[in-house]
Amino acid sequence: MPAPKAANPKSGGGKRSEYQDKEKPAQIRRSNITAAKGKIPTGVTQEYFSVFLIAVADAIRTSLGPRGMDKMIQAGNGDVTITNDGATILKQMQVLHPAAKMLVELSKAQDVEAGDGTTSVVVICGSLLDACTSLLEKGIHPTSISEAFQKAAAKSMEIIEGISTPVELSDRESLLQSASTSLNSKVVSQNSGTLSPIAVDAVLKVINPATATNVDLNDIKIVKKLGGTIEDTELIDGLVFTQKTSGGPSRLEKAKIGPTLLNAVMENNVVVSDYTQMDRVLREERQYILDIVKKIKKAGCNVLLIQKSILRDAVSDLALHFLAKMKIMVVKDVEREDIEFVCKSTGCRPIASLDHFLPENLGSAELVEEIQTGTSKIVKITGVANVGRTVTVLIRGSNKLVLEEADRSLHDALCVIRCLVKKRALIAGGGAPETELSLRLMEYANTLTGMEQYCFRAFAEALEVIPFTLAENAGLNPIATVTELRNRHAQGEKTAGINVRKGCITNILEENVVQPMLVSTSAIHLASETVKSIMKIDDINKFDRYSFSVSFQIKDIVKVR
Ligand SMILES: Nc1ncnc2c1ncn2[C@@H]1O[C@H](COP(=O)(O)OP(=O)(O)OP(=O)(O)O)[C@@H](O)[C@H]1O
Ligand SMILES: [Mg+2]
């Protein structure tokens, strides 16, 4: 792009320059839209593009829906990820254009707000941006577009709320169906029969269904262990440590648990000069450790959890020997961030000094056992009195890639149930809500006039991208499918959706494809907010790292001279 020719303020009798490049804001906007949509436009110079730009909205469109494709992403360090999750794909992409980065943030925002729908939100945003391009070309002012889109988004919320059906948390069948819908589109879709009940039960166990308005997913600990298959994944009312015990019995009933931050080793270096002194030091060390172990035993503790220490071994071999003799099970190398969860689950307190090793600071569990899984062992603590209402999900998988994706998919399913706790309403899936919404918005647009009507229509049409893409990804004719879907909705079939299994349009509720209302409302709300922000930008100022380093070097040279 030619640089704006700024007039010299000194020339022209000291008058300030009136020159303004009228083309620049439009070009910036166009560049931002295409960057977010992922195509480099003709006629726009590369000035506003980074060296590396990946197609964003278009790139992840193919992964929408149950027949969507997965992405294989290789990170800079060679790590490979296989995923279908929109937020994960975008997070791993190296998007450098500032406008394209807004889409990454959008997907993250949806992940925080709803947890699911992170692909849909970006696809909707891409389609809305497409609509903006044609509206801009018609000469409509960007502010008018963004204002009308905001109104259309607000109207959409009303319409979606109108077509939603309330759901009770006691309606287990509906919860299972919505968890399965979110798992259907994942790599682990064939295991949704195992994972859906786990997601539903996990959430219901950590909340009080009568009063809860939100779920703290930190109360559900996900532990991944390589080996077995996803079918072996289980929900545990308690805790799991993926390391084996370091001594003591391997099975204990009626356990008293003490998580400790203690270092049972002598802390100082002692310099000894003869054998008698050495003998004394060894004897004293023995006595010192024995005293510690006796105190632990006296407090009634029979399972000792020791926090991982990075500076040295948290527990010496001698201490382990005494602990084993006293029949105290030891699990060492417990991660620091797990201590809080352990305390919440078992009702114990972290103990940092021996003086605090008191019976009231210990937690209790019915059973602590070491179990052989495949080639390694794990420690399971079960039968905790549900003190802090926590659960653990032990995910099993035959390889690292599957294990990671199962974790992400389960997170989506948990989020779907969390959405239903937050807002107890369900809508149909399979493109039905978007088609219905589009139709109702079109009807509403007829009551408007002028530019606003244009923008409302464009907004309504843009929403059809979801059924269009679902059909496209399922190998159906997208135009024919969307047209038929529109007709069926016009005839009053509010739940007609794309049946990807049969390859036709049916009442999608019969297929049990339902999703939380919050996922759709949040997607439309966040997408239109992002479009508004992109529309408002008319200039990009870049901090040039290169020029900074050059000036820095020159300064250095001057200093040397
Ligand atoms: N069995 C099904 N038949 C038809 N449509 C389905 C079915 N299962 C899911 N869908 C639709 O697929 C879409 C969701 O696809 P997908 O899960 O790939 O993306 P997302 O939820 O937007 O993002 P992500 O799951 O990556 O966070 C929703 O519109 C949903 O209605
Ligand atoms: Mg999903």
Describe this structure in words.
- It is found in: Cytoplasm.
- With 561 residues, the chain is of the alpha+beta class.
- The protein has two domains: 23-165 and 428-556, Orthogonal Bundle (GROEL, domain 1), CATH 1.10.560.10; 238-386, GroEL (3-Layer(bba) Sandwich), CATH 3.50.7.10.
- The chain has helices at 23-37, 57-61, 86-92, 98-113, 118-137, 142-163, 172-184, 192-206, 275-298, 317-325, 336-346, 400-422, 432-445, 450-463, 465-473, 478-490, 517-536, 545-560; strands at residues 71-74, 80-83, 165-166, 220-226, 234-236, 238-241, 251-260, 303-307, 329-334, 363-373, 376-382, 391-397, 425-428, 496-499, 504-507, 514-516.
- A hairpin with a 4-residue loop joins strand 14 (496-499) and strand 15.
- Helix 4 (98-113) runs antiparallel to helix 17, helix 5 runs antiparallel to helix 14 (450-463) and helix 13 (432-445) packs across helix 16.
- The two termini are 40 Å apart.
- Bound molecules: adenosine-5'-triphosphate and magnesium ion.
- Residues 116, 182, 185, 412 line the site of magnesium ion.
- Magnesium ion is lined by residues 116, 182, 185, 412.
